[in-house]
Design brief:
The protein has about 325 residues and is mainly beta. The protein is built from one helix and 26 strands. The longest helix has 7 residues, at about 1-10.
Length: about 325
């Protein structure tokens, strides 16, 4: 199991926490209501586009949006990049940056929305993605190690204690890990020396081979044909991911959403396609969640799609300038 592998790894353990432990927010927070079924980040709390993103919640039909945080209006405004809910609805891991930060600079936080407190887990490290184990016992994330240039896969307790680098690879990039429903293994995207992203089961079992790599998408690590951002189905038997199909759409690229068996033994099935950007999917009992952006129309939509690709529902539509992203199902939804 992933946890046993992590505990058995023969590397030094470091606490890697910030000097400040649990600190109060500078502005109020609240837990999602009982009606909320998902979280996402967006700047749509503001009238004008381009504002820092806050953490928002949405109910099942998209009719009620809840603003859960208020740090965008703090003296040093924060900007939410990505969230990973814990099994407890009010607790989560979040990747945040600030409006004046250098490109790629971020910090990883543990947050308890009901208490209005947070812990800086890693303050001075580029953390690119994070997932919270369904068991609630650990988090999995990717970060660039000190004196390194390529992302590695890390494990730690939710407070940052007992951190372990699970991969320590010099010529291979591990990104966007997701833990399976049983907290026993993980899936992630890997980019080797060829530069093509593929999906792997921990520790390095190939799940997708994908097409040969093509034109690079500027400002990203991806080339046309790359597979990215995998997620397990609720029963752990299948995987959804996205594939870069073109570099148009205002520089966002065009992306398909695909599914296949988690062991890679089936042919990937395209469930969403067309000349639009589609962000990282999340998979819950109600189906697949992802943000879809049409650069020409300057519009983003939060889409709910059954795993067979039929019965598409748009839960929310926003101006693309609000940068809606990171939709995640809440536990029990």
């Amino acid at each position: 199991m992933l946890r046993r592998l992590a505990l058995a790894a023969s590397i030094a353990v470091s606490a890697a926490c910030g000097d400040d432990a649990t600190n109060p927010f500078s502005s109020p927070t609240r837990a999602p209501s009982a009606q909320a079924v998902l979280l996402f980040v967006s700047g749509s709390w503001a009238t004008d586009t381009g504002q820092p993103r806050e953490l928002l919640a949405l109910n099942a039909d998209g009719s009620t949006v809840e603003r859960l945080t208020s740090c965008a209006q703090a003296s040093t405004p924060c900007d939410f990049v990505q969230v990973a809910p814990s099994p407890e609805r009010a607790r989560l891991a979040a990747i945040r940056t600030t409006t004046d930060a250098e490109a790629g600079a971020s910090a990883l936080y543990f947050m308890d929305l009901s208490r209005g407190v947070e812990t800086i887990i890693f303050a001075n490290r580029r953390v690119d993605s994070v997932d919270y184990a369904p068991s609630g016992s650990f988090i999995l994330y990717t970060a660039v190690p000190a004196q390194g240039t390529q992302e590695d896969l890390y494990y730690s307790d939710p407070n940052g204690q007992n951190e372990q680098n699970l991969t320590s690879s010099l010529d291979f990039r591990e990104r966007s890990p997701r833990v399976d429903p049983y907290s026993s293994t993980a899936i992630y995207e890997g980019i080797d020396e060829s530069g093509v992203g593929r999906i792997y089961l921990f520790s390095r079992t190939l799940v997708t081979s994908g097409p040969d790599g093509g034109e690079p998408l500027p400002g990203t690590p991806y080339v046309v044909g790359a597979d990215a951002d995998p997620v397990f189905s609720p029963d752990g038997g299948s995987v959804a991911f996205r594939r870069l199909t073109g570099v148009g759409n205002g520089g966002l690229g065009t992306w398909d959403i695909l599914t296949l068996k988690a062991d890679g033994a089936s042919t990937p099935q395209v469930v969403a396609t067309g000349p639009l950007f589609r962000g990282a999917p999340d998979w819950g009992s109600k189906g697949l969640l992802f943000v879809e952006t049409d650069a020409a129309a300057a519009r983003s939509q939060l889409v709910l799609l059954p795993a067979d690709g039929t019965g598409r529902t748009v839960l929310r539509t926003e101006d693309a300038g609000y940068r809606m992203g990171s939709p995640r199902w809440l536990a029990g939804s």
